[in-house]
Amino acid sequence: MICILKTEGLKKYFYPREGVFGKKALIKAVDGVDISVYKDSIFAVVGESGSGKSTLAKLLLRLIEPTEGRVIYRGKNISELKKEELKNFRKKVQVIFQDPFSSLNPRMTVFSILSEPLKVHKVLTSKRQLRERVMELLDTVGLKTEHMDRYPHEFSGGQRQRICIARALALEPELIIADEPLSALDVSIQAQILNLLSELRQTKGLSFVFISHDLNLIHYFSDYVTVMYKGRIVEEGPSEVVFQRPLHPYTKTLLDALPKLRTKGRTIIRKKRTLSYERVEAGTGCSFYPRCPEPLEACKEEEPHLKGADDRRVACLRV
After folding, report:
1. pLDDT per residue over 236-291, tens digit each?
2. Which residue has the higher pLDDT, 196 or 271?
3. Mind giving me the DSSP string for 210-270?
4. What phi and psi, each to the nearest 5 degrees, are found at residue 123?
5. Secondary structure of residue 43 in the 3-state scheme
6. Residue 1 burial (CB count, 10 A)
7. What phi and psi, each to the nearest 5 degrees, are found at residue 250?
């Protein structure tokens, strides 16, 4: 398999001030992450809010610079890319943001939004070629030709996300980083967009880094999954393996928190288990120790590292 994008010891630390005159705090948003994204695959990143998923996406796109470590695209460190090389990287690696409304310029028509990357990268120049390409993109994502002269506020949330997908496809990328692309949409619209992404993967040969907190979507859509907690990877492996036999307590907790259906006579009762154990101050060891339902004494002092084989790795002293 061909590796498109990988990270080596990737870290991103922030130092916000606590209060107006307070001292600077240290936030380890991403703390030593190593991942590999392969051609024609869907690499998923899952975790609760604050686990570092979106910060990782920004690092992969070079929207922010890492504190330490490297992001390697096709064998080159993206932080060292020159102007033309970086322009080619921007062309081949595209992004779909979480909120389809805020990521579209409200003063630009759909035609202007979709033709802008084609103009910037000088792929097409004539008005006729641009209109033909925009019409093709709209057709690809299930929108109509007459939509190109409308503004973002005239569309529903699902239609706006389709426009964002069309913009990501404009330059024919090989990798799309989708940061929570469905979280702002209704469930029925989520299914439509997910089916569209699956179809594009097959017809266009796209690879995805798919970031979400929705485990059901991850299970359905991804080939490989990485579970993040407080900036670190705690478990990773093929999706079916991780979902069928989770090993890390945090992964088990996430899966247990999913709504469960059980029947009682003719009544369907929705049962959902939640995080209920007490939170305490973390020590120098495992970051999940304060919330772990089954901690060892060593977990308080010893920091676990990813270990395993056959593409399955877990950071837990119990494994």
Report:
1. 999 999 999 999 999 998 888 776 655 455 444 444 445 544 444 545 788 888 88
2. 196
3. EEES-HHHHHHH-SEEEEEETTEEEEEEEHHHHHHS--SHHHHHHHHTSEEEEEETTEEEE
4. -75, -45
5. strand
6. 8
7. -70, -40
d(C-alpha 128, C-alpha 118), whole Å: 13
Helix (H) or strand (E) run with residue 87 in it: helix 83-92
**What six digits make up the tokens of 162?**
């389709």
Residue 46 burial (CB count, 10 A)? 25
CA distances from 131 to 42, 61, 153 (A): 31, 28, 21
The Cα–Cα gap between 248 and 316 comes to 6
Task: Please name the residue that has the structure tokens 């990798």.
Answer: 175
Tokens read off for 81: 């890319």
Amino acid identity of residue 69, one-letter, is G
**Can you give the length of the chain in residues?**
319
Burial letters for 181-192: b for 16+ Cβ neighbours within 10 Å, e otherwise? Answer: bbebbeeebbeb
Could you give the C-alpha distances from 273 to 169, 219, 249, 253, 267, in angstroms and in order?
39, 19, 14, 9, 19
| Residue 82, token pair as written in the block | 């020159």
For residues 117 and 113, what is the distance between their CA atoms, to the nearest angstrom? 8
Tokens 């059901």 belong to 216
Scan for tokens 């979280």, then name that residue.
Answer: 183
